[in-house]
């Protein structure tokens, strides 16, 4: 795989066009062909669910994800960023009622999440 670097102007243009993007760095060694860090843009991973999924099911899925973060990190180091506090970074996707309930119950001081 070959990574093509973005210029500062390209990063700025992308961030202006899509405010949900943030500056991001992919650490060297993340991929076998990546020998140095790679500056780019990115956004946090989101699980997207249908609105009509049962609230209890979505709540349980969020609970399992955060209860098993160590396993996620073993699968891929980027999962270290999968923490409840990062839910405030979502400024463009609506939250499912099941995930909102989990965040409000588990991390009430972090914000509204909706």
How would you describe what is shown here?
The chain has 114 residues and is an alpha+beta fold. The protein has four helices and two strands. The longest helix is centred in the middle third of the chain and has 13 residues, at 55-67. It is globular, with a radius of gyration of 16 Å.
Quick recap of the structure?
The mean pLDDT is 85. This protein has 114 residues and is of the alpha+beta class. It has helices at 8-17, 55-67, 69-75, 97-106; strands spanning 22-26, 38-42.
Features:
single chain, globular, alpha+beta, 4 helices
Shape: globular
Helix content: 25-40%
* SSE topology string: HEEHHH
**Radius of gyration, rounded?**
16 Å
Poorly predicted regions: none
Main beta-sheet strand count, sense and barrel state: 2 strands, antiparallel
End-to-end separation in angstroms reads 38 Å
Number of E strands: 2
Structural category is alpha+beta
Q: How many alpha or pi helices?
A: 4
Share in β-strands? 5-15%
**Averaged pLDDT:** 85
Which sequence of strands runs across the widest sheet?
Answer: 1-2
């Amino acid at each position: 795989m070959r990574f093509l670097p973005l210029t500062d102007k390209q990063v700025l243009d992308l961030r202006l066009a899509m405010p949900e993007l943030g500056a991001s760095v992919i650490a060297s060694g993340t991929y076998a062909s990546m020998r140095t860090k790679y500056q780019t843009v990115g956004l946090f991973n989101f699980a997207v669910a249908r609105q009509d999924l049962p609230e209890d099911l979505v709540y349980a899925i969020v609970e399992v994800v955060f209860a098993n973060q160590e396993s996620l990190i073993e699968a891929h180091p980027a999962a270290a960023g999968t923490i409840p506090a990062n839910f405030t970074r979502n400024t463009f996707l609506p939250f499912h009622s099941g995930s909102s309930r989990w965040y409000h119950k588990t991390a009430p001081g972090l914000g509204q999440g909706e």
